[in-house]
Each structure stands twice: as C-alpha cells, then as structure tokens.
Amino acid sequence: MKRAALLWLLLVCSSTLMFASAVAILEKAEIKKNELRLHFNKAYNKGKIHHFTLKHPHREVFDIPQARVKNRYVGQQLHSSHCHSIRVSQYKPNTVRIVLETGKGYSCMPYRPILSYKSYHIPLPPFKVKKKQTVKHQRVKPKVIVHKTSGPKKKAVHQHQHKPKAKLINTSKSYRRGSGELIVIDPGHGGHDTGAIGGGKREKDLVLQIAKRLERQLKKRGYRVYMTRRSDVFLKLPQRTKIADRKDAKVFISIHANSLPKGSRRNKVQGIETYFLQTTRDAKSQRIAARENKAVLKGAGSNLSKKVIVDAVLNGPKIIESNKLAIDVQRYMLGSLRKHYRGVRDMGVRSAPFWVLVGASRPSILIETGYISNPRERKRLFNSKYQERMAEGIAKGVQSYLNNRKKEIEF
Ligand SMILES: [Zn+2]
Fold first, then answer.
1. Which residues surround ligand 1, an ion (CB under 5 A)?
2. For the whole model, what pTM was predicted?
C-alpha cells in the first residue's frame, strides 16, 4: 500500500494547504449559559453552515465548511446535563462537524452574536437528559473490534463441516440487487511499488487479479464499480483526486496481501483479515499498519500534522459503519471460501490506523487477503478458483452490508 497511501496523504494535505487562507480556525468550544459556543479566529462562512438532524438516537448536526479545528484538544471535554454527548470533529479536511446527541428533538436555533462575528452559538435543549443512555449510544468507539466468525480455527475434518449458516448461503436470491450504487475498489501498490513479495510472487499482481474479479462480481449484482487502477501502474496524484471526487461512492475497499519477515513463523502464519480505520493497542495490528504505512510516514514532513488528520477520521461518523462493513465482508468471504477449501484461517476483523483509509468519508475497509509469505496460502491466493470464491464472498459481504443499511433510516 505504501506509495498509494502516500499520495492519498499528500492529497489530503495539499487540499488543506490550498484552502488554508480561506479557512476559519475553530480555536475554542465551550458550554456557557446552556449554549455551545464556538469561537473562530476570524469570520466563518455562516451562510454555508449545514444544520440537519439524525435519528436513533436524535442528534443535531452542524457541518461548518471552510473551517478547521485548531488542534485535537478543542472541543474534547464538553459536558452538559442537557446532552448525552457533544462532539466536535474535523469531519472532512475542511469541514468541522458538531454533533449534539440530545435523545429527542427541540427547536434548535443557532445564531451569530451581533457583537462577535467570529462566534457561533448553538443553544442546547431546554430539557435535561437521562444519564444512562450516554454509554449505550457511545458511537465513536465501537466495542466490536475483533470479530471471529463461527467454527473452529484449525483444520476442518470434512469439507462441509464449515458450511456457513443457512442465512449466509441464500444470498443471491434473498438479497435485493444493488441499484447502481458506486463501489470504489483500490488494488494496493502498483508500478515500481511491488508490495510484499513471497516465493517470487508480488502483492501488486495478486491484488489486481482479485480486484478485477471483485469488479465483475459486484457488477453482476447490479453495482457500479470504480477501480483506482486496472493495470500495473503507479498511481499519480490526479488519479487519486478522481477518487475523492467520487462523492457518491457508497463503499471504499482497499485490497492487499499480508506478509511476515523472514523467520521461523513465516511458513506457519496464514489467514484472512479485514481492517477498518481506528487507532489500536493491539500489537499485531500495529505491526501490520506500520508495515503498510512505512513509506508514508517517511514521506510526511515534520510540519504535516498527521495527528490532526488521523483525529479527523477517528472522530468522523464512519467508524461504526466501516466496522459493520468489515464484519459483513469478512464473514461472507470466509463463508464462500470454506465451502470449497479446508483450513481457511479467520484472523478476524481488526482496527488499525491505515493511511490509505484516512480521509475516506464513506465506509472504508482494507482487506488483507492472506499471507503471501506462507507457501500454502500463496499457492491458493494465486489460484483463479480461490480468487473467484474470495471475490464472490467480498461482493456478498458488500451486498449484505448495503442492504442492511438501506433498512436503517440514516443511511
Ligand atoms: Zn499492501
């Protein structure tokens, strides 16, 4: 992923710098007189503030364009007995998002004080909220981080023992077809960036093969697909920009293969894992993220505040959605493969701070399709039937996720 991710980061950062002069900085957020008061360094664009509500639970949301949160401390410790939670985040590189979780609706009329054109006041609800719901609706940090699908981890005695549950098998008929929603597929690496290498085989070739199969599988199901690359090329910045322009994309899927450095475990470790973006304390996830991020971190100058960018994504609303997408994809991928192959190892759904997922304002996942360093798994990974089953599983997972989301009001 390394170079592709670097470009992505550059894109995020350059757009930040380009607009730097037009951007109002949110320097302070405080609760006073039952209002959330925002203080900018200069006049912000009041006319462009987008105020809307979300349900289950009820939230008042404000998107403030051409604005940035000064640093990660601004707006982090806001408490009021009139809100379950008050969140301030860098929702997009140049959009600050304010979310008041109030449980129920009220007539919320924000305003700019006459004498203070740099401030924006958002009245909180006149009622107090019940305390217990704060924990229940904690939306930023999902509890499910590692999801293991059912079944023993080791070898299956019979091939059919690992048939997924009936619910998973009846997909094609029981699920509605996609209605032209756009899916972005990002085959990792490319060109001079080979990615991991094992037994002379290269990650960049493998992930492109799987991506093309996935494209066909998704199209078969009625989705539109945008591929970040279709050949062995190194992605340039304008190509990446195109992805960012695809605002109607519902899902972003980056495809990679894993690898272990030379050592005794190199021939043993195998398995499939799906990541969504989040900081983690899990050492293994950290190690894999570090490997994929290496080039990016090297390339990022000290004056680029990577912390701010990561915070922006971590505070965004897409983490839970990405987590759900990751769970569905992982589950169906394993279901599809285990119908035909023994000993397919489930390494779970994990979270890690992958740079390629930073800045994605839609549910985004990164699939580590297997260990290219493991001879047995490598052989499978480059087998066309195995690739097809895997692609089919990923497509079913995306379909399941999108169909479930359709049922939810806020999607
Ligand atoms: Zn990779």
1. 1, 188, 195, 256
2. 0.54
